[in-house]
Specification:
317 residues; two-stranded antiparallel ribbon; transmembrane; MetI-like_sf
Length: 317
C-alpha cells in the first residue's frame, strides 16, 4: 500500500502561497502608500552611493567615473595629513558635544514640563507657540540675529551705544559663536523635537500614576519612577540615531553664521567640503571626506546599538 505525501510550500510567516497572495492583495493599499517613500529612498539614498567610488579616483567630469584615474587611498591620506584636519575635527566634535549635552535633553525637559501643565488652554497655546519656530527658515532666523546684533547697524548695539554700554560683538567673537548656534537650534527645534516624547508620554498607563498617588508619591516621585522609565527606550533609540550624525553637524546653519572672524571655531567638515569641493572643484577629495564622515557615523551607531543590546536594552534593530 503506497502512501502519498503531499508537500505544501509555506513562506517564512507560515502561510501557503495562496494565503500570502490574499494577504498581499488585502494590504495592497498600504504597500501603495509605502511606494513613494521607498522610491525616494532608493533614488536619493541608495543609487547615489555608487558615486563614492570617485573617492578612490582622480575624478574628471570630462572622463566620467569609468574613465577617471584610479588613485586608491591617496585622498584619505591627504585628509588625515591635512593641516586643517585637527581643527576641523575639533570644531565638529565640540559642536556635537554641546549639541548632545544641551540641545538633546531640551525637548525631553520641555515635554516633561508640558506634560505637567493641567490647564488645557494654556497647555495647547504654549505647545503651539513653541512649535511655530520650526516652520521658520534658518535663513530668516540668522537674518533676524544679524539685524539685532550686527556690529555696525544692529538694533541691540545701537541701543547699547545710546545708553553708554559697550557693544555686544557676538557674531564676530569666536567665544560666542557656539552658544549663539546652540540657542538658535534650541529656540527653533525644541518644540518640534518634543512631539515624539509627548506621544510616548500619552501612551503611559494612567493607572500607574493613580497607584503612585495611593502610595503617597508626589509629582517628582511620579516623574522619576514612572515617567522617565517610560521614556527611557525612546530616549535611547533617538540617542543612538543621533550618534549617526555625530560628525555630520550640518551645513546651512553653520555656513550662515560663519564669517572670517569666527572661522577658527566655525569651520567644520561640511563647510570645508563646500569650500574645497564646490568652490574649488575637488570632487574626489571631498567625496573621500564625506565617506569618512559616513563611516564614523555608522561605526558609532553600530557600537552604541551593540552596547545597548548587551546592557539588556532594545536597540534600533
Amino acid at each position: 500500500m503506497r502512501s502519498t505525501v503531499i508537500e505544501t510550500k509555506i513562506d517564512s510567516q507560515g502561510r501557503t502561497p495562496s494565503a500570502a497572495a490574499h494577504y498581499i492583495k488585502r494590504a495592497f493599499p498600504i504597500y501603495l502608500m509605502i511606494l513613494p517613500g521607498l522610491l525616494s529612498i532608493v533614488l536619493f539614498k541608495y543609487l547615489p552611493m555608487f558615486g563614492i567610488v570617485i573617492s578612490f579616483q582622480q575624478y574628471s567630469p570630462f572622463k566620467g567615473i569609468w574613465g577617471s584615474k584610479w588613485v586608491g587611498l591617496d585622498h584619505f591620506v591627504r585628509l588625515f595629513t591635512e593641516q586643517q584636519f585637527v581643527t576641523l575635527l575639533q570644531n565638529t566634535l565640540i559642536l556635537n558635544l554641546i549639541d548632545i549635552c544641551f540641545y538633546f535633553p531640551a525637548p525631553i525637559i520641555f515635554a516633561l514640563i508640558l506634560n505637567e501643565v493641567r490647564v488645557r488652554w494654556f497647555k495647547s497655546t504654549l505647545q503651539t507657540v513653541v512649535y511655530l519656530p520650526h516652520f521658520v527658515s534658518m535663513i530668516v532666523v540668522v537674518g533676524i540675529t544679524v539685524v539685532l546684533f550686527a556690529s555696525e547697524f544692529g538694533g541691540v548695539n545701537q541701543w547699547l551705544d545710546a545708553i553708554g554700554l559697550p557693544r555686544y560683538e557676538g557674531l564676530t567673537d569666536p567665544d560666542h559663536f557656539r552658544w549663539i548656534w546652540l540657542l538658535q537650534n534650541i529656540w527653533k527645534e525644541v518644540g518640534w523635537s518634543a512631539i515624539i516624547y509627548l506621544a510616548a508620554l500619552a501612551s503611559i498607563d494612567p493607572t500607574l500614576y493613580e497607584a503612585a498617588v495611593m502610595d503617597g508619591a508626589n509629582r517628582w516621585r511620579q516623574i522619576w519612577h514612572i515617567t522617565l522609565p517610560s521614556l527611557a527606550q525612546v530616549i535611547l533609540i533617538l540617542f543612538i540615531l543621533r550618534l549617526g550624525s555625530f560628525i555630520d553637524i550640518g551645513f546651512e546653519h553653520i555656513f550662515l553664521l560663519q564669517n572670517p572672524l569666527n572661522l577658527v571655531v566655525s569651520d567644520v567638515f561640511d563647510t570645508y567640503i563646500y569650500r574645497i569641493g564646490v568652490q574649488q572643484g575637488e570632487f574626489s577629495y571631498t567625496t573621500a571626506v564625506g565617506l569618512f564622515k559616513s563611516v564614523v557615523g555608522l561605526s558609532l551607531v553600530l557600537s552604541a546599538n551593540a552596547i545597548a543590546k548587551r546592557s539588556g536594552k532594545e536597540g534600533v534593530y
